[in-house]
Amino acid sequence: MNKLNIHVYHRRRMKKRYEKYGSEAFDAYQLMEMLLFYSYKRRDTNSLAHIIMDDRETSFYGSKTTSFLKDHHGVGDETATLVRLSSDTCLAALTERLRSRPMSSDFSRRAFLWLWFKNKPDKSVALLLLDESMNYIDCLGVYLKRRPVPDVYRSKILTLMAEKEASYAVLCHNHQKNNRDPSVEDMYLTAYLQSSLSPLGYTLLSHLIVTDTDCIDCRYPEAEAPTEALDCEKQEQAHEMNKESKVKEHQCNEKAL
């Protein structure tokens, strides 16, 4: 049996196994290997699939994917486009399914936003808008400075909600490198917007941080946020002191044990 026939029979076995058992019968690199079958008609794609999937810097979404694969893994235009197109198609299908149904649960809103941010640059800000029945209206990129200015955010959100005739909104921004900690400014902004929009008939359901793996709610963990303007620097200092005191308390408890 020559080398060409080995690849042919291997591909046939892989495809039959996929048709019979689906994706659950394969590791991620094996699925990538099969995807590459359609770009490389004869080449052994196993090693290339391992390299692509093991590279943690590889992004499978957005315009940077094509150039990254070509520059770092030596693939051609057709292969790079195929990998990106397959990922973008899956992303579009998932988001379309989520927004075609009422987003009445916190889970559905978080899942949609986590997917929406997959091909967005760091420090992006978005506003998810829903009607009175929690049906999807739009998800808009909001071009604001990431350092929160409450009155500016309030004015922009009010304008967009009025234009789109939305009843509910979710404010969201992303953090790179899985930074999951909301700042005091973020937590204050959440409380300020919720308290100031409610009397006008609009509801801010939540203010979320999207990371690579999670969506985190920006809200005060204990006491309610002040309704008056505050000195964010002092709040940040108070927040850090509170964290230090909790660490010391935890250390004392460990020693006691």
Main attributes of the structure:
257 residues, alpha+beta, Cytidine Deaminase, domain 2, 2 domains, five-stranded mixed β-sheet, 53% helix
Task: Write a short abstract of this structure.
The protein is α+β, with helices and mostly antiparallel strands and 257 residues long.
Question: How would you portray this structure in words?
Answer:
- There is one protein chain.
- The protein is elongated.
- The protein has 2 domains: 3-95; 102-256, Cytidine Deaminase, domain 2, CATH 3.40.140.10.
- The longest helix has 25 residues, at 232-256.
- It has helices spanning 3-21, 28-37, 46-54, 64-73, 77-99, 106-116, 150-164, 184-197, 232-256; strands spanning 125-130, 136-141, 168-174, 203-210, 215-217.
- The protein contains 9 helices and 5 strands, in the order ααααααββαβαββα.
- With 257 residues, the protein is an alpha+beta fold.
- A 5-stranded mixed β-sheet has the order 2-1-3-4-5.
Number of individual domains: 2
Could you state the oligomeric state of the chains shown? single chain
Structural class by helix and strand composition: alpha+beta
Strand order of the largest sheet: 2-1-3-4-5
Fraction of residues in H or I helices: 40-55%
Mean pLDDT across all amino acids: 81
Shape category: elongated
Number of strands: 5
